[in-house]
Amino acid sequence: MTEPLTSAPILETERLILRGPVRSDLSEFTRFVTSSPRMKAQEETVSNEDAWFHFLTGIGHWQWHGFGFFTLISRGGHIPLGRVGLLKHANWPEVELAWHLFEGAEGNGYATEAAQEIRSWAYQSHGLNQLVSYIHHGNRRSQAVAKRLGAETDGSRADHEPDAEIWRHLAVK
User: Hey, which residues does 99 pair with through a beta bridge?
Assistant: First the structure.
């Protein structure tokens, strides 16, 4: 592993190591956001240059908020499986728990496993008592993750992203 770019702690689950971003994560992230069939289906692909800016925005979250995206690595592995973490852009009313699994990593329960650990960390370390997930109304797989996490939606949409439903996570006690 190369030098960490943030102050993110290292969290561990049964199968995963969750760590802050490092420079070498950029190539896998760029591949995902520029060419993933899932990103294309939601019309959310971006250019290589925009991928770089999004990656740096993720690093900035750690500096500004003290939280951001964790990179998921399987125990004993080195290749990033995806990113799961907390976001709060300037125009967002609430902190989002978000997940993006890279090609080949989906369907293994990694997003749920990582999100459970990060949600607990967020409640304990940051005193947050509620998180939301902004999920595209047609993204059934992401909605299934939210349901496994116990989140619920009433179908209301996010002002900053009209195609996204607001899923609410209750505090874990």
Answer: 84
89: domain CATH number is 3.40.630.30
CA distance 111 to 142: 9
The total of structural domains in the chain comes to 1
Q: Beta strand 130-136 with 152-158: parallel, antiparallel or unpaired?
A: unpaired
Whether 45 and 32 have beta carbons less than 8 Å apart is answered as no
Average pLDDT for runs of 10 along the chain of length 173: 87 97 94 84 86 94 96 94 95 94 94 97 92 94 96 94 93 62
What CA–CA distance (Å, rounded) separates 40 from 36?
6
Write b or e for each residue in 45-76: b if 16 or more Cβ atoms lie within 10 A of its Cβ, otherwise e: beeeeebeeebeebbebbeeeebbbbbbbeee
Quote the pTM value: 0.92
